Amino acid sequence: MTTAVALHPTAAQAAPPSDVKPVRVVILVDESGSLKDQDVTRERAAAQLIALSELSEQSQVAVVGFGSSNGPGQSAVDIVCPLTGVQTAQDRESLSRCVEKLRLRTAEEGNDTDHAAALEQALDIMGRPDDQQRAKIVFLLTDGVLDVRNSPQYGADAQARNANAQAQITRSLADAERGQVQIWPLGFGAADKSALDAFAAGGWVQPCGDQQTSTPKARVVATSADVERSLLEAFAYARCAGIEKSVTDSLDAGATVDLNVNIPIIATDGSIVVVKRDKRIQVTYFDPEGTQVPKQGELKESTFQAAGEAGPVESLRIRNPLPGQWRIRLESPPGVSRQEVSATVVWQGALRASISLSNPRPRPGEQVNVRLRLQTRTGTITDPAALEGLRFSARMSGEGFQEVPVELGDTGEGADRARSDGEYSGQIVIPATATGALSFVGKVSGPGVAGDERPYATRIAGPADRLRAQVELGSATVEPGGTLAGTVRVTNEAEPVQLGLRLVDVPGTVGLSAQQVQAPTGSSEQGFELRVSADAGEGTVSGVLQVLDPAGQVVAEEFVDVDVRPPTPLWQRALQALLILLAILAVALPFLLARRRARRRAADPSELTLHLFDRPGEPYISRLQAPLGEGPEFMFEVSDGRLVRTYGTGYAVRRGQGRTVLVRDPSGRELDPLLPGQPIALPNGMYLGVDDGRARGGGAEQPAYGSAEPYRSRTHRPMPGDDLL
């Protein structure tokens, strides 16, 4: 589908909600004698699929059975369902029931195949007054070829009757093309493919612009068992909708089965169509959040309407569906034979294009940035995956020059401000010959996209236009009741004026702090605020902010992007802070314990051995090894020429930097640093030396004093905190 949307510099309010376009559908169903009972059953189900899956409440559906008129009292056509709206569930239920009147004709009823009469009846229905300008679609279901040799209304010569009927078909197809009536033939069994191709090509063939899938074409399936999916697919393409992959499974008596289907993010309207065969099978629907949705009524921002529950086919029509994977649960009661069940999603995106210009009042020769993005009823689409497959472009036209295309992209290059943000931008230079009126039209095309075309008009800036403005308004997350600050930068070469501010396509929950800003002579900056009401719901608010000159002309505009989120509850913020703290501790604790362990090992004096001398160079007279695991220092005293371990009094010994050992005398005075092999004098005239077992790396070196026996380390014990590392 192609969406052409024009800019609105003069629109002061939000555009009306986008809706999928309604259709008028006529389903022609073969009732000829070449069919079997199961074929008619499949045809009924296929017709019900169309009647129940239609997306617009303003659409209309008629079902016509056809055979032939071979004698008095016979009619080639049988209107089993007159043209009926599908606005309510009761309307759709009525269509589902009347389809059951399709039957296999007997010879007494006229059971040949009169395609000419069927097509003429369809065009008669299509020609009735229509105040909604509905798209016109005819579906032709048949298993045979044109055969009216027994129908006298086509001439007295039985051999010429088929040719006469074919000539009537040719005239009807020409009428269909003029009346923009699509014809989608679906044949099965022995249907004549070439004849069906002529039906498809003879009517209107451009219902959705340049979308190839939407061009009417004939389909021929092997058996009637393939009719349902093929017709539903043709229906989706014919009304410019999208269709997801069908999911099929078997359902045993007394069993339950779940079918999972997807609704894309750009879908604003959808129908989940379920073929269950037996009306006793119960169907329940669950949204992507796991919530069971009602079959009638509203939930969250969605509206639901189910129909066909009492028949072999049912559907759930959803307005504003939650995107993602839906779960359909089917439950079969005991006693029901094993059934093949299936589910399919038909959807459409009723989207509104929003366009912004970097300079809405350009001069000839100036470069203008054109920006385009898509909005659903509930917000702007920014997900690149959701926009994949859509094509964005624009065109510019005006007085004094021919129409010029504008190529748009979301590459983050040139005029595009960021890559893959859902905003498609392009640059164009205003022709030097432009003299007056100027217009831009944005175009979005892609499967399942529906929209409208709205006029936009601006003008080239003239000599009197001596004011320029620019809006700065970034995207932000705002709590209900909060504000978002913006700036209007103005260059005014004329007298001071007041400029107006207005919001376009922005819901009423967001307003402006002021409707006007001052524009003094020269360059200036004026601040304003977007204010989100306290009762605003959660979600994205989008639209356009415009700056107007005193004449009401747009001189600057910018997109609005506000993500409204309620404040985080205090308990949740406290929990988040606690989790952050725990995460920091989880990372830091091993490091802190390792440092603590390293410091303790570095300070541990356990491998120090003190030696007492009368004079340096003489053998020691006493020896004391540092105690094990009693802290970073130990104490001793010299008594009767011996080193004696003490607690709380005497000399204090601890490790210093490198191999240095620090000694403090009983008065608290620090003595000279002590190194292995370099004794120091004590206040009592004796000398103190030290051996350090750690410095010898496990006994590889000779001790400075005492025996040459290898030193046995006593520090292999576990240190505090080792079990946490």
TrEMBL record:
Instruction: Note the coiled coil stretches, chain numbering.
Output: none
Q: From the record, give the transmembrane residue ranges.
A: 574-593
Q: Which domain of life is it from?
A: Bacteria
- Please name the SUPFAM superfamilies in this protein's record: vWA-like
Q: Name one Pfam family in it.
A: VWA_2
Going by the UniProt record, its keywords in alphabetical order are:
Membrane, Transmembrane, Transmembrane helix
Domain VWFA residue range list: 24-251
Q: Where is this region: Disordered?
A: 692-725
Q: Which PROSITE patterns match?
A: VWFA (PS50234)
What the entry lists under InterPro entries is as follows: VWF_A, vWFA_dom_sf
Identify this protein by name: VWFA domain-containing protein
- Protein's organism: Nonomuraea thailandensis
